[in-house]
Write a structure and sequence with these properties.
Length: about 400
Amino acid sequence: MCVDWFKMSMAKLNIRPEPLMCRRCGASREDLGKRLPRGWKRQSEFVYCATCWNSLYLLRAIKVPVASPLDCGWKELRAMLHEMWAATTQASNWLITELYARDVRRGNEARMPAMPNVYLYPEARERFPTLPPRSIAALVQNVQRTYRAKRYNTIWTCAASLPTYRYPSPFSTPSQAWSIDLENTAPVVNVRIGSRDLRLRLKSGARYSRQMDSVSKIVSGEAVRSELIIYQRSNDIVCKFLAWLPRPTLQEHRSGILTVRTAAHALIVAFTATDEQIWTYNGDQLRRWQAEHRVRLQRWAEDSKAEHRPAPPFAERRTNAVRKYRDRMATACHTIGSLVVNYAIRRQFAAVRYDDSDRTYCEQFPWFELKLRIAEKCDAAGLDFEHVSKCQDSRGSNVIDQVSDTCATG
């Protein structure tokens, strides 16, 4: 509706909108107002189309815990953040409920109608005055994306219920409302929390060398910063930056495909095109972690008697153990993905073919997450990624189901 009104106003005034032109490829689009077309990005005074932007930058998340607040104490900072997390949780649930209430209902239509345009920002500003205006604008966009993703299963097939946000929902801030600088080699974030602008010093050092490399690119302007999210993880307050990092320069003399397979005697094994085994990663600690975690959960389940209700005395220890196990598995997936991709780069391979059909070595391992991490790191390194999975048909013979995911290499 807003776009049609803008076109009609421009036509009445005999004003022809200036076309948008990509700086890199020269593709042009008709300017529909202040908003860019979906996928287009603006950097300084230049505009890039979605294809060119994705070939130049990678969207990555950088997570760094807060070391100390500089403008207030820890007690005051936590009180302000708890207020923001509570308001964010309430606003998110209210927004998604209003989107559902104002959406269409299934009738005799053969296809699901388009979602009506609902502008909830003014009402959200009035209902939740403690949230900064820019944070509410970012929250409205995030909740709308979540609702659109769940809309078909919620209002059309009724296969899922409406998503629910639980406290503490992360407090998000758009790119225009925060900045980061280096003070004495330590990153310091300047962000508006509630009605105050606060500076938060983040942790640094050798442990966060990878994060510091990305932060230095944001500070220098080499990377384009996006959203900042502040959330609580155990007893830590964590700042998560979403930033577009520049893609690495590709090497033209790469060739060949590195075939990586899962096996019964090792986690993954790498082969050449001639089926020669050249690299193995066993990962014996993964099976040990899995066995220990399974035994601990079983013993805690046996001790969870009715006399302990509503919560057993070891509930907190069990929660911390589950979190620790998930963190271990997530770190293992990132580490293994980096090992595979770095080996392919060192041996000058141009692509990685991944086959995870054999999962007998560690059945409870998050294989899907490992595939995502390998594909993500292949994309960052400019390697093509191909996922191959095998299954059996009704006659018992092997049937290869091949899914090729060619990553953007510029």
